[in-house]
Specification:
Chain lengths: ~425, ~80
């Protein structure tokens, strides 16, 4: 089945993670209904216009309800749909518990996202099926939720395997099983083939993963460039990425964005929202002991048109005030005056804060500023995020610190790097 | 088994090693207060669903004139007792 020098990788994926975790919480606190067995979804609040579906139960999926669609559209498909709000702190706790349990089985383990882990299980080669079943059973019994485990010789195939149906099962996808299990699937199911690539591939008359695997690689490279090579390799099950300890090695920037509950029309309002986003992003920047050299803002207007603009800062810095100056400039340069629905900021070109360039003239002032930022961070960490706020937010209706989903800010929701 | 799912007031003692023993609790139902003294603790289990720890005590007590079985839960992190 597999050569002796090959690795064995498990990919553990929680079935409808957010929904399962909320279901377990309700049951643990004495609820009588298991929401996994009725049409139900986890979704943001509709009043605040965060009303999209984050996860759906299997019965809800039978009505054709999909993750990412608006709640009102889902209600049209199923009248007695039950909607529950997300509880990010609970999800992080569940994810931590899963990671802790899995750590008992392998030292080489990568937390790929909040509900997925890769594990190097080469040492279980003799009876990997039994081990996988045991891990799956322990998670169900001790933690209360169901998982899919995909097994193969590399991360890509393991991840593809864990997507197979039925759910709550252990699936394998070794190289010799690819023609049978993977190549008949539509090409859009392949990792890294999104809607845009899918459309391009359809034009080349590539509809299944198998067709992609047997396509002329040079033609793919000429049409899709390096991405063409990547997906060609993926279709052939080629992937040599390592199990990484951390997903954050390649953090390139820190950012936050927010959808505002009403349309923003004035510069003053927009700047307030940007300031609140800056406050929370720079707090994270300082927490990670980094400085940034670039700021970028993104704007989505009320017609869902999206654009962004970036600006270099004169010095690498972690000061809220200096970064906000950059944000302000970037916004003023790019805003076209229309109504705004969503705003985001991002700081990039990160460097360590061990050494940094002082500007000659305002050394004293920046030193003071650093102390002030640190004191405010400490106060907020100790007494809550809103213990110290800028007076401009008083009675303004804008949250003083915006963005981020509870403490799970540190878990990437999705990543394209295996 | 009927699911009550309510927070309750509880008297318990802690053994030297930190083990918890529930003694009696008070439950309000339809405005009436009732104190129930626990007769026997049948089993004590640690439940950690989704990593959330709760001590589950399966107990029996004489309520009215009938001996009844019930489960008490202690929410470790929020320090709450539940019936």
């Amino acid at each position: 089945m597999n050569n002796n020098d090959e690795r064995l990788i498990f990919h553990i994926d929680v079935n409808s993670a957010y929904l399962s975790w909320t279901a377990v919480k309700l049951l643990q606190y004495g609820g009588e209904l298991d929401i996994r067995e009725v049409p139900s979804v986890i979704g943001g609040s509709e009043e605040n216009r965060h009303g999209i579906i984050l996860a759906a139960s299997m019965p809800a999926k039978k009505f054709g309800i999909k993750t990412g669609e608006p709640i009102y559209a889902a209600r049209l498909k199923c009248k007695n749909l039950i909607v529950y709000p997300p509880d990010y702190n609970w999800y992080v706790k569940s994810s931590d518990a899963l990671f802790e349990l899995l750590s008992e089985y392998s030292p080489k383990i990568q937390r790929y996202s909040i509900d997925e882990c890769f594990m190097d299980c080469t040492h279980f080669k003799e009876d990997y099926m039994r081990m996988a079943m045991r891990i799956k059973m322990r998670v169900s019994q001790e933690l209360g939720f169901n998982t899919n485990i995909g097994i193969s010789t590399n991360k890509l195939l393991a991840k593809m395997a864990s997507d197979f149906k039925p759910k709550n099962t252990v699936h394998t996808l070794f190289k010799d099983e690819m023609p049978l299990k993977m190549w008949d699937l539509p090409v859009g199911d392949l990792f890294m083939v999104g809607r845009a690539s899918e459309a391009k591939l359809h034009k080349l008359n590539v509809h299944t993963i198998g067709e992609l695997a047997q396509y002329d690689i040079n033609l793919l490279i000429s049409k899709l460039h390096s991405h063409g090579k990547l997906i060609y390799e993926y279709a052939n099950g080629i992937d040599n990425s390592e199990i990484r300890k951390s997903n954050y090695l390649e953090v390139k920037g820190i950012g936050n964005s927010t959808t505002v509950s009403y349309d923003i029309e004035t510069m003053e309002e927009a700047l307030k929202v940007l300031l609140s986003l800056t406050e929370s992003s720079t707090m994270r920047l300082r927490e990670s002991n980094s400085l940034c050299g670039f700021v970028a803002i993104s704007i989505k207007n009320n017609e869902f048109f999206h654009y962004s603009h970036q600006k270099p800062l004169s010095n690498h810095t972690d000061s809220t005030d200096k970064i906000f100056e950059g944000v302000k400039d970037a916004f003023k340069e790019s805003w076209r005056g229309e109504k705004i629905r969503q705003l985001g900021i991002r700081v990039t070109k990160l460097s360590s804060n061990e050494y940094f360039q002082e500007s000659l003239f305002d050394y004293e002032r920046s030193e003071k500023q650093r102390k002030l930022d640190k004191t405010i961070d400490d106060l907020r960490n100790k007494y809550g995020k809103e213990s110290v706020i800028r007076s401009t937010f008083l009675h303004s209706g804008v949250e003083p610190l915006n963005g981020g989903t509870g403490s799970d800010e540190y878990y990437p929701m999705m990543s394209s790097i295996l | 088994m009927k699911v009550v799912s309510k927070e309750i007031e509880m008297i318990a003692y802690f053994k030297k090693g930190g083990k918890i023993n529930p003694i009696k609790f008070r439950i309000e139902e339809e405005g009436k207060c009732q104190v129930i003294k626990i007769g026997k603790i049948i089993s004590t289990d640690l439940e950690k669903l989704c990593g959330n720890r709760m001590w589950v005590f399966t107990c029996s007590a004489v309520i009215g004139d009938v001996e009844k079985m019930f489960e008490l839960k202690y929410d470790v992190e929020r320090c709450l007792n539940r019936l």
